[in-house]
């Protein structure tokens, strides 16, 4: 056929332009009908599948979204990982900010996919970690469209809900965290810090060395801080798997905000000693800083042994948060199959935001807030001077360096841990001995 085109273009004997155009049209039509596409990007010869998206949309609404659906709220929560009102809230917010999730007609005046179909496809991939083409039978959505839905959904969730659900704790949050920490015996504790690795199956070969660490395959590191209710307050994602927890801590902005005067400020007294910085429970690999409290690996005394048990019990909050996050969203439990690092970042952050939104939605009765509001929290006994403050302004350089030295002070670390051990033993030592 290519020889035919060459002869037709070189044919200078024909003077009839209309006949020549007719031959061109016939040749192109013949080529279109007899050609077979060899790749996903070859538009010529691609098959069109009529999926009846309108009927699929009706089935989906009848199954989950009408007044008396086929599947009740319990099955909806199990299959979508969130409640129906929360699903609709996210969908309506996305539709207001992004027309991609609004059902429209294409150039052929054919009705396209609805927002419910697109969001269902995205959530099913996040929740079950299934392949993109496995949703075609029920949602009637193609593989490439499913992948695009996941990317746009995660990006929209991060951009719209990220400032609220990935923020640092405010004054009310800090008061609640400190109240709960006091009930558990760790005055001034703001949460638990740890890292997890997400395997990257389709990591480019050129990056394998940089992203391969102790698990002997390419991974990406996620650093989080989780509180007692499994809310994730801090999420730093993207460091190559060859880095350990100390490297990730140095690269994250966790204590950078505190150095610049943008982090939470706490004031409390333990065993007669005054402290003005909150701290996090961590394992033994982290440095001996004033804002880090580690366990005792080989306790020799009863007080040290009791502290180690209490420490490990409270530090399991972050481990439990990792487990719940991976159980809710299987896509981050298995190896990542996307190619681009930016897509994986949006997916991870979107899953964390949805995780926090689910916790907020399912919080029945926050007894901590009720106790604090009613004045029965016994919070004044912590020795705080007035309400908890969160400073947000920039600091001069000398104050920045002074705060940095205070954060990294190992002497304060050991002195503070000694006070915590004495405080816990004062509260529970007699019951342990008996």
Describe this structure in words.
52% of the residues lie in helices and 10% in strands. The chain contains 17 helices and nine strands. The chain has a five-stranded mixed beta sheet with strand order 3-2-1-7-8, sandwiched between helices. α6 packs across α8 and α13 (302-328) packs across α17. Mean pLDDT is 84; it is low at 376-390.
Strand content: 5-15%
* Multimerization state: single chain
Strand-pairing-aware structural class = alpha/beta
Helix content range of the residues, please? 40-55%
Q: Report the uncertain regions.
A: 376-390
Query: What's the β-strand tally?
Result: 9
The ordered H/E elements are: HHHHHHHHHEHEEHHEEEEEHHHEHH
Largest beta-sheet details: 5 strands, mixed
Rough outline: elongated
Enumerate how many helices there are, as a single number.
Answer: 17
Q: Strand sequence of the main sheet, in spatial order? A: 3-2-1-7-8
Computed CA radius of gyration, to the nearest angstrom: 29 Å
* Mean pLDDT rating: 84
Report the end-to-end length measured between terminal Cα atoms: 95 Å
């Amino acid at each position: 056929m290519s020889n035919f085109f060459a002869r037709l273009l070189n044919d200078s004997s024909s003077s009839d332009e209309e006949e020549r155009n007719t031959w061109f049209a016939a040749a192109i039509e013949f080529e279109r009908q007899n050609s077979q596409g060899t790749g996903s990007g070859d538009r010529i010869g691609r098959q069109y599948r009529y999926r009846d998206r309108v009927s699929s949309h009706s089935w989906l609404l009848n199954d989950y979204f009408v007044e008396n659906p086929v599947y009740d709220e319990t099955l909806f929560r199990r299959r979508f990982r969130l409640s129906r009102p929360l699903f609709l809230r996210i969908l309506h917010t996305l539709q207001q900010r992004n027309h991609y999730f609004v059902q429209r007609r294409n150039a052929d005046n054919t009705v396209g996919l609805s927002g419910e179909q697109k969001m269902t496809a995205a959530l099913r991939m996040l929740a079950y970690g299934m392949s993109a083409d496995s949703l075609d039978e029920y949602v009637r959505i193609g593989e490439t469209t499913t992948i695009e839905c996941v990317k746009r959904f995660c990006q929209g969730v991060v951009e719209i809900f990220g400032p609220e659900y990935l923020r640092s704790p405010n004054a009310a949050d800090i008061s609640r965290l400190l109240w709960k920490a006091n009930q558990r015996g760790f005055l001034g504790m703001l949460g638990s810090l740890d890292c997890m690795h997400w395997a990257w199956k389709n990591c480019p070969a050129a990056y394998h060395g940089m992203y391969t660490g102790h698990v002997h395959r390419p991974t990406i590191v996620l650093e989080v801080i989780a509180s007692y209710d499994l809310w994730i307050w801090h999420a730093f994602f993207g460091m190559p798997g060859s880095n350990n927890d100390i490297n990730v801590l140095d690269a994250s902005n966790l204590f950078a905000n505190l150095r610049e005067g943008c982090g939470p400020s706490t004031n409390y007294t333990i065993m007669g000693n005054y402290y003005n910085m909150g701290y996090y429970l961590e394992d033994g690999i982290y440095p001996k800083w004033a804002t880090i409290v580690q366990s005792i690996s080989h306790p020799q005394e009863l007080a040290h042994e009791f502290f180690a048990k209490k420490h490990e019990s409270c530090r399991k909050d972050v481990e439990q948060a990792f487990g719940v996050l991976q159980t809710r969203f299987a896509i981050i439990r298995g190896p990542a199959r996307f190619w681009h690092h930016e897509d994986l970042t949006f997916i991870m952050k979107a899953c964390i935001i949805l995780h926090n939104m689910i916790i907020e939605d399912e919080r029945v009765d926050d007894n901590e807030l009720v106790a604090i509001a009613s004045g029965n929290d016994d919070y004044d006994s912590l020795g705080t001077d007035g309400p908890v403050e969160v400073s947000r302004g920039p600091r001069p350089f000398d104050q920045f360096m002074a705060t940095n030295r205070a954060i990294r002070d190992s002497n304060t670390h050991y002195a503070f841990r000694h006070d915590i051990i004495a405080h816990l033993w004062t509260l529970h030592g007699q019951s342990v001995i008996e």
